[in-house]
Amino acid sequence: MTFKPLAALFVAALLSTTCFAQTIQEDFKPSSLNQPGQEYPMVNSQGYARFRINAPKADSVKVSLGLGGRGGTKLAKQADGFWTGTTEGPMDEGFHYYNITIDGGKFNDPGALNYYGSVRWESGIEIPAHDQDFYALKDVPHGNVQQVLFPSKSTGTSRRAYVYTPPGYEKDKSKKYPVLYLQHGWGEDETAWSNQGHANLIMDNLIADNKTKPFIIVMTYGMTNEVKWGKIRDFKIEPFQTVLTEELIPYVDANFRTLANRDNRAMAGLSMGGMETKTITLNKPETFGYYGLLSGGLYAPEDIKGKPKAKLIFISCGSKEKPDGVTKAVADLKGAGYNAVSYVSDKTGHEFQTWRRSLHEMAPLLFK
User: Fold this and answer.
1) pTM for the full model?
2) Other CB atoms within 10 Å distance of the CB of residue 181
């Protein structure tokens, strides 16, 4: 008699799983981040990703990426020597890094473009988002992203930054602009916000729609990759703080038409770049008037009490992170009299779709 209820529960669970199992739609198309002429990887309308790797002599091939499956997506060998497979579930919308493991060795997918992340060049795949229009390449006036090399006495070398200047910057030689210093996350570099984040396209579209004040964005290497994964607590902010506040900012103010004062200068960053932002804005509150933490920690009223008051504190994360902490922190800041804004990206985690959306929400609030 005791086995009947157990059997009934098992059948009910099986039926439940079957009822809610998702049928994969066979409308796969090449990812927008594929190498020219490459058909794979592919994505479908539901967010599944499909891979095809040529490794005829391999014994095992696996794809490791974001939410592509528990333990990675194992590919199956076909008669022609290609290995194929589809993620066991749909991916979150937006950009994801991934790599291929072939017989224990880690490789990039020859079909995909590469992006610097996880302290190495990784393959990239884009899952089309329902709201991707805000970072789409449109027929609007475009700004310019240029590489600059600035001298750094503190590190004994020249360092690199990328500078976005808004549309019209080259034409009106008398106009000056506010500046946002925008930092990448751990394992990334100064190319991330333009390549993975589409920061320039986000700004171009906002400016074209008259939704934000035009401003300059400066993106530089945050000296984060010297810290091993899991050793973030060992990171020392002082070397990068010196590079940013004593070398890069003076260089930008001397070589670009900036409004060189606290009320027209912001700092924001994603993940570890948020941690850098918080630390530097607390150490140098006279330098920045606007703060942004994108999946990068929180401010509490006691952190900033007695310091020059920020004109805006923007804190965001994905709904799959810890949104309650973000909303509570902002409520506490508002209660203490600070101009604070929270934003939670729907159905995303610690990933670039969260940060793209965050920049899109934050930019119109800057330099009011």
Assistant:
1) 0.91
2) 27
Element (H, E) at 200: helix 199-208
Q: Are 245 and 280 in contact (CB under 8 A)?
A: yes
> How far apart, in whole angstroms, are the C-alpha atoms of residue 148 and residue 254?
13
Residue with tokens 């008051």: 309
Cα angle 28, 34, 39 (rounded to 5 degrees) comes to: 45
Tokens at 332, concatenated: 């506490």
Which residues contact residue 158 at a Cβ distance below 8 angstroms, ignoring those fewer than 6 apart?
149, 150, 151, 152
Q: Give the span between the Cα atoms of 31 and 351, in whole angstroms.
A: 18
Tokens of 304: 């900033």
As a residue count, the chain comes to: 368
The per-residue pLDDT string of the chain (368 residues; one tens digit each, 9 = 90 and over) reads: 433 444 444 444 444 444 445 799 999 999 999 999 999 999 999 999 999 999 999 999 999 985 434 458 999 999 999 999 999 999 999 999 999 999 999 999 999 999 999 889 999 999 999 999 999 999 999 999 999 999 999 999 999 999 999 999 999 999 999 999 999 999 999 999 999 999 999 999 999 999 999 999 999 999 755 666 666 677 889 999 999 999 999 999 999 999 999 999 999 999 999 999 999 999 999 999 999 999 999 999 999 999 999 999 999 999 999 999 999 999 999 999 999 999 999 999 999 999 999 999 999 999 99
What is the chain's Cα-based Rg?
23
Name the nearest CA neighbour of 179 among 218, 212, 208, 142: 218
Instruction: Tell me the sheet residues that pair with 29.
Output: 43
- Residue ranges of domains in the chain, CATH in brackets: 23-128 (2.60.40.10), 134-365 (3.40.50.1820)
